[in-house]
Amino acid sequence: MKLNNNKAVAQTHSRNNGTHRTHFTHLVTFQKSAFTLAEVLITLAIIGVVAAITIPSLVKNYNEKAWATAQDVFTKRLEVATRQMNTEEKLAGYNSTMDFVNELKKKIKIINVCDSNNLSKCFESTILTADGQEVDATNLKTSAKLAKEDWGTETVGVQFANGINALIAYNPNTDQQPFNNQFSATEASMAILYDVSGHKNPNTLGKDVNQNANVKTLGCLINPDLVGGMCITQILASGTGYGSMTKAECETQKEALGINGCYYEPDYWAGAVKACGAKSNMPSREQLLELAKYVYSTDSIDSSGATRNLTLDKTKAAQFLSISPYSDMFYVWNEQEGRTYAYTREFSSTSSDYGNFYSRRDRATLAVCIGDN
């Protein structure tokens, strides 16, 4: 139904008819049309449906990128601070985590510190693993609970000025090396569990909550029962989750990390090993096979070669795909092959292949860290 807005305009015409002049007038009508109420409501409904479908995905992607960026910036800033402490010979020699944190405050801005009995004032009392299991953070009062048995220090809660909250345990066995510019002080001096979104949700490991290699496994990202008992603790992408190592760094740390031989820089495979804490904390070929069975929902996977005509379950593989440089596939590092190459398993949308020899300089491969269940 069209709504008419009629406007009449009088127009006068004259015509000679012999001795008589005749005048006549007629109306010219202009018609204006508009949308009906039903048409407007239908349009609004369509816009609402499209928004409901797209906005959650956009928000999820935005949050994940924001968390990854915040994590990368924070870890780099923290490493700069500890490197400075190392250069000034102020990294080692503390008997307590509180003493260490009080020195750290001079290098990176901290607005609040909480002792081991008041951790919840600086950090969430409960955090979640990726599969929804609750971890009581207030029970992580000592380094034995948060990190390693032999450290013997307390855990301290810290709130940084950039909005990041953390639990820190100091390693009193730290060996500072003031004349070694390649020294990576962060891993050696502390264990840190940190939340880049502060007290905001989701407070979930692998999302806004992250941990360095010295933190004990607090949860598995995938239910171990689904992947042959393997507990995946971290899934890391190069650049944000792990970096490369120089040959000099590799040579000084290869024995501790279990690396057989070092490669020319940049060595991303060695960087992945370092991020996981040791080569033994990376999945074996058999464990990658179990992961393949899980993400493809089939037991028909070749353990040492290629399997075709598969269908990748992108819901199961979401944690990998979300940080992979490819939209529909990802690679996972495995054992090294000589000095130059390392094994990987490829997980593509329709196939999986084990035994790809990837240069250790390749940065497009994910580091998967495993720990005790």
Structure description:
The protein is an alpha+beta fold. The protein folds into two domains: 35-216, no CATH class; 220-373, no CATH class. Helix content is 28%, strand content 24%. It has helices at residues 37-87, 97-104, 143-146, 185-189, 247-257, 268-276, 285-296, 318-321, and strands at 7-17, 20-30, 110-114, 126-128, 134-136, 155-160, 165-170, 190-195, 209-211, 231-236, 306-307, 330-337, 341-347, 352-359, 367-371. The protein has a five-stranded antiparallel beta sheet with strand order 3-6-7-8-9. It has a four-stranded antiparallel beta sheet with strand order 11-14-13-12, with helices on one face. It has a two-stranded antiparallel ribbon with strand order 1-2.
Which strand order does the major sheet show?
3-6-7-8-9
The ordered string of helix (H) and strand (E) elements is: EEHHEEEHEEHEEEHHHEHEEEE
Low-confidence stretches: 1-10
Residues in β-strands, percent: 15-25%
**For the terminal residues, how far apart are their CA atoms?**
69 Å
Question: What's this model, at a glance?
Answer:
The protein contains eight helices and 15 strands. The chain has helices spanning about 35-85, 95-105, 145, 185-190, 245-255, 270-275, 285-295, 320; strands at about 5-15, 20-30, 110-115, 125-130, 135, 155-160, 165-170, 190-195, 210, 230-235, 305, 330-335, 340-345, 350-360, 365-370.
